[in-house]
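Hi L.,

As promised, Oxidoreductase:
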Amino acid sequence: MNEHPSGAAVDRPARLSVGVVGAGRVGPALAAALKLAGHRPVAASGVSDASRRRAEALLPGVPLMEPAEVLARADLVLLTVPDDVLPGLVAGLAATGSVRPGQLMAHASGRYGTAVLAPATRAGALPLALHPVMTFTGTPVDVERLAGCSFGVTAPEELRLAAEALVIEMGGEPEWIAEEARPLYHAALAIGANHLVTLVAQAMELLRAAGVAAPDRMLGPLLGAALDNALRSGDAALTGPVARGDAGTVAAHVAELRRHAPQAVAGYLAMARTTADRALANGLLKPELAEDLLEVLSDGGAP
């Protein structure tokens, strides 16, 4: 095995004591997955009742304590707190002398690479960014969902093998993300996953307003097929009135949304314009039909 300058083995982590700082939805699931791989969760921190329940469900018998105490017990520390909290947490732990030289310190934020861990790195910690590309429920099913899940991995070159080994032990697939590419990587995931939830929820709301009793059942097959086609074919999977250049139908959509769901108009127009641009660029939307369609979209379907 190679060794980090601190003397820590880095090619493949040995059996580690694992601590979780921030027992939200993600941290306990990652620690539980590491436990299945033979590592030993020893401590967690969490203040809310929900955090305590998650820790009890996923990490039974693991004591809850203050973050500094978690660091004192753990060889590997998982910092699983909200993005905006992470920089201050790292700085505070380093300033209070809680960080031990040679201690592996990993966060699960998509936004950040390892630069956010700089205060801990200066104190001798070995920095890792291990972001699971998955939504979490805070229940044991999350551990199962890690199987085959991609992780966005960022680490110093000498820690790359250790980072990848930890991801594989959790059942995941490591994908190397350069430090400077983390914000773009995270924006892409937010567009794909977070906006998808908003779109689906809005579509169900509108179907209910249209009298559909079970919009989830109606949308399930359609959206499943659309997602599968999009992942396979990209823009070539585009269908519907925008891709066809059916300006009259789009204008009717906008008029109905203005009447029944005005809060949905801005989102519909923004997505329709983007769809039209992509369909036109990829040869799906005929230029002679695009003019009328873009006129409808530019004035929001106004008469």
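The two ends are 71 Å apart (CA to CA).

Thanks again for sending the construct details.

K.
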